[in-house]
Amino acid sequence: MDKVIYFPRGLMGFEDKHDFTLLQLKEGSPFLVLQSMDDPRLGLLVADPYSFLEDYPIRVGEAEQKLLRLQNIRQVAVLVTVSIPKGEPEKTALNLSGPILVNHQARLGLQIPQTDGKFPSQVYLHMPKE
């Protein structure tokens, strides 16, 4: 499967899951589903943070760059998980403390916790109620 992205470390809370694929929800939508290939019940709503934020600097250490086989940081796509509290879509938030980096060329992914505290761990989207 050429769409499978391998996560050598898994994801936070799902360290035993390694194979995922990205599913587009709607054409042009900044939201995607990071779907586990190991467990069909596990799918995480993710988004491109730069669709919502002008500035979101992330730190990627040398070990992580090697693991992702990066020659250039532009090779990587940045995703963040999105949380939508049940019955409260207006409290939809981007979770910024653990960005997920994907090297589509190498089909590798890594979640890299950000511990410097320079950015809030969440940003609310304040989506309008329909």
TrEMBL record:
UniProt cross-references to SUPFAM superfamilies, sorted A to Z: BH3618-like
Primary location group: cytoplasm
Question: Does Cytoplasm show up as a keyword for this record?
Answer: yes
Lipid metabolism keyword on record: no
| Localization | Cytoplasm
Q: Name one Pfam family in it.
A: FliW
Q: Which UniProt keywords apply?
A: Bacterial flagellum biogenesis, Chaperone, Cytoplasm, Translation regulation
- Superkingdom of source: Bacteria
The processes (GO biological process) annotated in the record are: bacterial-type flagellum assembly; regulation of translation
Question: GO cellular component terms?
Answer: cytoplasm
Q: Which InterPro entries match?
A: Flagellar_assembly_factor_FliW (IPR003775), Flagellar_assmbl_FliW_dom_sf (IPR024046)
Describe, as the record does, how this protein assembles with itself and its partners.
Interacts with translational regulator CsrA and flagellin(s).
Q: Which PANTHER family does the protein's record reference?
A: FLAGELLAR ASSEMBLY FACTOR FLIW
**Function, please?**
Acts as an anti-CsrA protein, binds CsrA and prevents it from repressing translation of its target genes, one of which is flagellin. Binds to flagellin and participates in the assembly of the flagellum.
Q: Which NCBIfam families does the UniProt record give? A: PRK13285.1-1
Q: To which protein family does this belong?
A: Belongs to the FliW family.
Q: What's this protein's name?
A: Flagellar assembly factor FliW
